[in-house]
User: What shape does this take?
Amino acid sequence: MSKTATLEIDGKKYEFPLIVGTENEVAIDIKTLRGATSGITTIDPGYKNTGACESAITFLNGEEGILRYRGYSIEELAEKADFLEVAFLLIFGELPTKVELEKFHSDIKAQSVVDDDIKKILDAFPKSAHPMGVLSSLTSALTAFNPSSVNVDSEEDMYKSVVRILGKFPVLVAWTMRKKQGLPLNYGDNSLGYVENILKMMFEKPNEEYKQSSILVNALDKLLILHADHEQNCSTSTVRIVGSAHTGLFASISSGISALWGPLHGGANQAVLEMLSGIEEDDGDTKKYMAKAKDKSDPFRLMGFGHRVYKNFDPRAKIIKVAADEVLGDLGVEDPILDIAKGLEKEALEDKYFVDRKLYPNVDFYSGIIYRAMGIPTDMFTVMFALGRLPGWIAQWREMRLRKEPIGRPRQIYIGENSRAFKDIKNR
Ligand code: ACO
Assistant: This one.
């Protein structure tokens, strides 16, 4: 392949280098475009054709349905690793040794107490507040309780901020849910594994001993691993761009949580369950909703179907579908909503509209189903996604800072009014 791309504008030719990644992805490096062409820029709303960075964390190939963290396939990681190992891998680049993993976990545990005053902030929220808004605010508030800024040139400083957020975030997640349910706010149990501890903090009742279920621990471990990173998606790009202004880790992650909240991104798992409940209330008429999804004059979309980059099957959805069947079987769950989900999945997979557009069930179609079976309230689903995505956000923020990337600042093409004289208010 040639090493450059040529652009011709008004008969004048400009050469730009091609960059080739380790998986042979090719990009035209247009860093010099504006300077060379005296101000011509590119436009790509939604960034479908724009690479924002070079990254060594996650590789995905949407056409072939491949997802790898640091070179390891998602299938193998979901089967053989636990969430904390995957977090270490994403953030530091290699799978941890036994000693490294134990140290990592104990450093996280040492940071897992959240200042009791955070409870006052939580108390100020009405019970009706959406958990994602609460979580985003509490994460941002962590900055006030841990004000020292991270010296990104110090490996030790960077490590401290990583274990701090990994220690405190699950407490915020559990408190967000418990507050809404009127349960007393608790602290974790450092004798437990990371995921076991999360479940205990979330579900422990004040008047009975919490019993761990290996089915739930395994299911949550898998779900968190599958959500742990997904390269430059909307929330991760947000974390990187906010961090590119040298904003701290907690505040950058708080912005990522807000981006993830939207129903076209992480909020889809909640939207899936709401859609399924709506269909159930409407006599389970899946055909009616299939027709609505295909009707261009109707804004309704089949939530949990389609993906910006997977135009084949979402590899995470394949793993999670098996996990969903296992969990539902093991827990003996019978739920009409699940029957509707299965019916809808079957119809969409056979429907020409969905087949032609390569719209397959995505990870969120199944994750909500598992969370529901686990007893997690619907409006907490996206919070669970954030919990899984945390290591990815940290890894991407850290990489961006270590690579000393410039501040993110896209250009635009202005299409507004040309210069005009100010009109006094009485003449308007
Ligand atoms: N239901 C019905 N039609 C759909 C759907 C859907 N869920 N998704 C896409 N389409 C149609 C579009 O109307 C469009 O049709 P057209 O070509 O006739 O105009 C075509 O498929 C392509 O859709 P785009 O919106 O261009 O695809 P894009 O890549 O921009 O969007 C997205 C991807 C946002 C995920 C979209 O498929 C969607 O809205 N899905 C539902 C929400 C969802 O499940 N989001 C979760 C994503 S996964 C995640 O964040 C972890």
